[in-house]
Amino acid sequence: STTPQLPRMEEDAEAEPQSYAWESELQRTWDAVEETADGSLRSAAAGSWRPGEKPSVQVGVRRGVMRAVLLVLDCSRHAAEHDVEMKPSRLSVMCDAASDFAGRFFEQNPVSTLAVLVTRREKAEALTQLSCNVRQHQQALRALAASDDGCGGDASLQNALELARDTLSSVASFVSREVLLLSSSLTTCDPGDLLASLSSIAASRVRCSVISLLAEVYICRRIARETGGEYGVALSQPHLRELLLRLLPPRPVCQDKLAPTNSLVKVGFPSRVPPGGAPALTYSAGSSKPEVRADGGFACPQCGVLHAELPTECPVCALKLLSATDLSKTYHHLFPLPLFKQQLGPPAALCFGCGEALPAAARNAAPATHGFTCGACGAAFCEHCDALLHESLHACPSCEGP
């Protein structure tokens, strides 16, 4: 008897060669380089914005400028796993992104507070308390990333939501309550009914936003949907930072029964005490225990207690202490700077901000330049100055108006 032979399949000459598994971990940085009009090289990702990708400006929208945000990190055993897109580990990427988010958060929200929570080993615990001390949060995140036992067990969404609800229960009703969860796992280990906890936190006027580092999870999307938050899946480290930057501005407030109430807030503008005097008890931001210091500080106008920095909340009389600069920074969310128009100009056009010549639109093309012009005064700006004005200064230096 003869054994039947299977027909041989002809190899496709046009088939693409398959790459090795280790090649997928290479970062082809040379593919992200482009040539500018003057012949120099720059990264293709340079510049914060590109034409057509600028965020929309909403005028006349009610926003909660006083926010209490809880940053929850998923420190389960999955956070320590090796990931091709999240190097060296998901925990390191989350801590770096969260530290950068905390710094930018207080730049745009100086009258808000932030706390860091972690969920691991089927539990949830507070890493830092609600405060406006950005250094305290960043130091705790760096210590978490460097810790050998920072990850372990499974995450518990229910315990994280319950702890967030209890932490935000003491926040005033006129403060916007928000939770931002960075998830690095696809499972959750809960002691009870997660949906009951979800209903409870939604009734407490807490908005939950979730960013997953792995894949879309149904329960995470449902948490974000039922609480009015945002949901996204980070594809890479730059994408993760982009998703976090979208949550920096205060979100629009819905006109319903779950919206923060309107109330007059009593604040104080402390006077500066110069250094060199007698040592005195001074409170640091986010600390309930004073320290003996002789480098001056800011005296509370209501009780006279010294504080090391602003903004903060006086632990003695519970007065919100601000500076005039901090208070003015909150107005750009309510009266944003309109987007500048992109247009072509003469070859000798200079940027009003930095004084440099505006780059040519294309190499060996017609003698024209491109830039961004203010709709009120017509001043021209380059791409970098345009991003600086809309992201940090929030005002046109030519007409001094939003």
Structure commentary:
With 402 residues, the chain is of the alpha/beta class. It is built from nine helices and 19 strands. The chain has a six-stranded mixed beta sheet with strand order 5-4-3-6-7-8, with helices on both faces. A five-stranded mixed beta sheet has the order 10-13-14-11-12, with no helix packed on it. A three-stranded mixed beta sheet has the order 9-16-15, with no helix packed on it. A hairpin with a 6-residue loop joins β18 and β19. α1 (90-108) runs antiparallel to α2 (134-146) and α1 (90-108) runs parallel beside α6 (237-245). It is globular. Residues 6-17, 43-53 and 362-367 have low confidence and may be disordered.
Assign the structural class, choosing from mainly alpha, mainly beta, alpha/beta, alpha+beta, or little secondary structure: alpha/beta
Number of helices: 9
Average pLDDT confidence is 80
Radius of gyration: 26 Å
Number of strands: 19
Spatial separation of the terminal alpha carbons: 90 Å
The largest pleated sheet is described as:
6 strands, mixed
Helices and strands, in order, run as EEEHEEHHEHEHEHEEEEEEEEHHEEEH
- Helix coverage percent: 10-25%
In order across it, which strands form the biggest sheet? Answer: 5-4-3-6-7-8
Mass-distribution shape? globular
The proportion of strand residues reads 15-25%
Task: List low-pLDDT spans.
Answer: 6-17, 43-53, 362-367
